[in-house]
Write a structure and sequence with these properties.
A hairpin with a 2-residue loop joins strand 2 and strand 3. Strands 2, 3, 4, 6 and 9 form a 5-stranded antiparallel sheet that branches. Strands 5-1-7-8 form a 4-stranded antiparallel sheet, with no helix packed on it. The chain has one domain: PLAT/LH2 domain (Lipoxygenase-1). Helices cover 0% and strands 53% of the residues. By secondary structure, it is mainly β. The protein has no helices and 9 strands.
Length: 119
């Protein structure tokens, strides 16, 4: 099966206490399949902080045209997290998808730690 490289940018909201130090996970769905839930290790201590744009590279089987994105966190540290957007680029084809979340992932703020949106 063909492997593709996907670049992922996660935008955290720019309001007070919008960031998280919890473990973050992503799952992508496409016309050719889906990934497992993938842990996104923070690149530095400023990852997923208020107003940040964090970049990750994933190498997974070709998912085809992306249709859905799920993102979540495990509430292990500073659990309130305001996710604005997730942008995914297929580096093989330059196709790009924007998933707009604009929601809190926190048990106190929203009652859930995971959210999914379709493209």
């Amino acid at each position: 099966m063909k492997t593709n490289t996907y670049t992922i940018w996660i935008k955290t909201g720019d309001v007070s206490l919008a960031g998280t130090d919890s473990n973050v996970f992503i799952q992508l769905f496409g016309t050719n399949g889906q990934t497992e839930s993938v842990y996104l290790p923070p690149q530095d201590i400023f990852a997923f902080e208020a107003g940040s744009l964090d970049k990750f590279i994933m190498e997974v089987p070709d998912l085809g045209n992306l249709t859905r994105c799920c993102i979540g966190q495990d509430a292990s540290a500073d659990p309130g997290w305001l996710v604005e957007t997730v942008r995914v680029q297929d580096d093989e084809t330059d196709r790009e998808w924007l998933f707009v979340f604009n929601q809190w992932l926190d048990l106190q703020e929203s009652g859930h730690l995971t959210a999914c949106v379709t493209c």
